[in-house]
Design a protein that fits this description.
With 160 residues, the protein is of the alpha+beta class. It contains six helices and four strands, in the order ααβαβααβαβ.
Length: 160
């Protein structure tokens, strides 16, 4: 089995950091005057995975802190971000449309947005076991979007 974490491909060996956990670490490092050190460490992996962006809204200061690794990795390292919100909603997620636009500008420059519609694997398992009933409504909810950089070519967006 290929050890992506051990070979510098991704950050960490366990569960991927959530956006909230990552930003809390930035805030702590900033308070301890170690933010540059923390950002340098996050610039080293070839792939930085950030899970659950937008699950909880970020405070304005947190949005500015989240901008830092995005900006530093813009042309040098890949990021994969999961979110249960479309990028059109990120202005409210970051509590600042200007910061959200700056973050999205850097993330979407060399990216593909993958939109997954439907239930998570957790909900599918619960429905299959009969613990919960299928949703009533027009269609499946939006799942998560992942951003990944591409080399060459243009920014291709899937159409609905």
């Amino acid at each position: 089995m290929y050890d992506a974490a051990g070979s510098g491909w991704i950050l960490g060996r366990g569960r991927d950091p959530t956006a909230t956990t990552l930003v809390a670490g930035f805030a702590k490092a900033h308070g301890e005057r170690r933010l540059d050190e923390k950002l340098l460490a996050l610039s080293k992996p070839k792939l930085l995975i950030v899970d659950e962006l937008s699950y909880l809204p970020l405070e304005p200061d947190a949005a500015h802190l989240f901008f830092q690794p995005v900006s530093r990795r813009c042309e040098t390292g890949a990021m994969l971000i999961t979110s249960n919100r479309s990028v059109a909603e990120w202005g409210t997620v970051f509590a600042d449309p200007v910061v959200a636009t700056a973050i999205l500008d850097r993330l979407l420059h060399h990216s593909h947005v993958l939109t997954i519609r439907g239930d998570s694997y957790r909900l599918c398992a619960k429905r299959k076991s009969g613990l919960i009933k299928p949703p009533a409504g027009d269609g499946p909810p939006v799942g998560s979007a992942s951003l990944r950089p591409v080399t060459g070519g243009s920014n291709h967006q899937p159409t609905s």
